[in-house]
Amino acid sequence: MASASATSPFQAKPTQSRNTRKARMVSKLLEGAQVTENSQLGRNLEQVELDVSGYEIKFQKCQFVKAYDDELAEEEEASTVLATKRFVVFRLCPSGSCESCAYNFGEYVVDMETYLEASTAYYLEDREGMCGLCEEVCYADDDATKNAGAAYVDCDYCVDYCAAFDNMEDNGVYMESYLFSECQQVYESDDGNTQIFAGAICSNSGSVIKIGAFSDEDCSQMNNNIDIEDYLENGLKFDDTVLGQVVDVDSCVSCIAKEYEIPEQNDEQNDEEEEVEVNEMCENLYEAAAKCESKYGFDNYWKDYEDYANQYVQEDLVCDFISSLSGGSYDEYGEIVLSGSVSKSGAGATGGQKFALTAFILSSVGLAVYSASLHSQVTTGGKADLSSQGGAMA
């Protein structure tokens, strides 16, 4: 095994300052953590600064899971107590090993909304930066700029690519599908009895994220009889370019932030070693996700990091949960699959058995995953109702 300094995605630095609100919220979350050897020591541990610049993010799978929901259980008119939860599994692979990703990688699970928010923001920023550079280079009046920029942008490709997006809204044919990835209403009948909502769904294999129809405002009840494109204004159709990039299993996103400018020649600063900047997609997803790392060769010395203690002691549960998502335990609707068949009422398992299975799975591992998302929300100032959550994980 390589040394910790060579393989770890962290760099230890003494704590200098800390947001007071963040400290209070993290402390509250950790109250539910199991006591570890290091927390018993009560020593002042080092703050750890995340550095995943030597890694690349690789999408693995999206998966729906039908799980017990407190709010549905309290609604007298609700037809079910199971709500659809959405997850995405991804990996951090060492740079240059994305195709195989066989060792020294981590596997993670996060809610789909968080994954889509971070990944679509990255690809939109990448497109904007690339098209800005394309305009600067490809439409330059002087040959020097064109020659210098040739190594950074392909004019034969980018001119048409960028023009297509600039004209997308004006040509009245397509609109970008990622705009509907967050649940929103697209139709309501005059009498108000029929409502249709659009939101992100997973394909049967989990390799595609697309926009589907739902019958409720939380996008938990899928309506497979409706093509959501039929309800777009002016007969528009979806352009899936961004969502296609988000789930491209054949490519990876480097965690090193891209630069969208041509380096100046003979710049004295080029002789100095510059600090590598990590892109926000990697930072945000790593912080938000539940982590399965030790089993894949990540050195786990950072279990000494105080805020990591709760995650570390629950890692086996997270790994098991990720395996269930990746191993075909659920179909595209989030139904539990038993012995190769979907456990629908009257077939394969009774309603009571299905409920018991779902409750067991969520109580043993699912809550650990949700706690990871909760931790991300509270540490970044998002709203969260801690009293309604079971368990905690940093």
How many β-strands, per DSSP? 16
Main sheet strand line-up: 11-3-4-5-12
Q: Biggest sheet, open or closed, and with what strands and sense?
A: 5 strands, antiparallel
Number of helices: 12
The H-and-E topology, N to C, reads as HEHHEEHEEHHHEEEEEHEHEHHEEEEH
Overall geometry: flat
Q: How many whole angstroms does the radius of gyration measure? A: 23 Å
Structural class, please? Answer: alpha+beta
Q: What does the secondary structure layout of this molecule look like, with pairings?
A:
Elements: H1 4-7, E1 10-13, H2 20-30, H3 37-41, E2 47-50, E3 55-68, H4 70-74, E4 82-94, E5 106-111, H5 112-138, H6 143-149, H7 155-166, E6 174-176, E7 184-188, E8 195-202, E9 209-214, E10 237-239, H8 241-246, E11 253-254, H9 280-288, E12 290-292, H10 309-313, H11 315-326, E13 337-338, E14 341-342, E15 344-345, E16 348-349, H12 351-379
Parallel strand pairs: 6-10, 15-16
Antiparallel strand pairs: 1-2, 3-4, 3-11, 4-5, 5-12, 7-8, 8-9, 13-14
